[in-house]
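Example record for the data management plan.
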Amino acid sequence: MLYSKIEGEGKPFIIMHGFLGMSDNWKTLAGQYVETGFQVHILDLRNHGRSFHSDEWSYEAMVQDVFEYCQANNLTRIDILGHSMGGKVAMLFATTHSDLVDKLIVADIGPKFYKQHHQDILAGLNAVDFSVKPSRNDVEAIVSQYVSDFGTRQFLLKNLYWKEPGQLAFRFNLEVFNNNLDAIGKPLADNLVFAKPTLFIRGGESGYILDSDLDEIRRHFPNFKLETIPNAGHWLHAENPKMFFELTTAFLKE
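Corresponding structural encoding:
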C-alpha cells in the first residue's frame, strides 16, 4: 500500500508529486486545502518517498496503486491533483476510473509524449557513492557538478535520509529509474477521455505545456480550462504557491 499523509475532514482530495519528489513537497499547500474543507491525501508514489520499491515502474502500475489506495480507504467521489509525472498518473487514473473522480487538476504536464530530459540530474545522483559514507555536504557538492540550479538541488536532496547511523541514502529507487527512464515520457493512449471538469495549470516560463498542445489536451479532456502562472517555471506550485492555491481552490469550489 502506498505511503500517505491524511489530514482534515471533508471531500477526499488526492495530491501526487512529480518525478523524484515526495509527499513532503506538498505539505504546506495540503494544510491550506485542509483549511478550506478537504480531507487531503498526499501520496508517495511507488519507488518514491516512503512508499515501497518495485522493479515494475509504469504509469499503469502507479494508477493501479492509487486505485487500490482508494479502495482501501473507501474513497469514492474524489478530486485529484498531480504535478508533472504525478499529473500523468492523475490523467490516466481519471480517464480509466472516471466513476471515482469528480474534478481533475494537472500541474505543468500534458498528455503528449516527452523525450528524456533528466539525464544531467540522473548523472549527478548516480555519481554519489554512498559506500564511502558521504555527508550531506559531500552529496550536495557532487550533485552540484551536474545540477547547477540551487532550487533543483534542494528539491533532490530532500530525498536524503539516514538509513542507519552514519549512512545516508536516497529514498527513491534510483536503480529502477536508470533502467526504465523511457517510462516517464509515455503519452496518454489516444482513446482515453475524461469528460468532467479539468484544470491544467502551466508555468509561464515552463515549456511543458505549449499552445500547440491544446488541441490534443482538448481531445482527451473536452471540459478543460487552462491557467498560466506568470514568471513561474516547472515547479510552479513552489515558485508561486499563493496563486497556485487561489487558482486550484477557485476551480474546486466551482
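Summary line stored alongside the record: Residues 118-179 form one domain.
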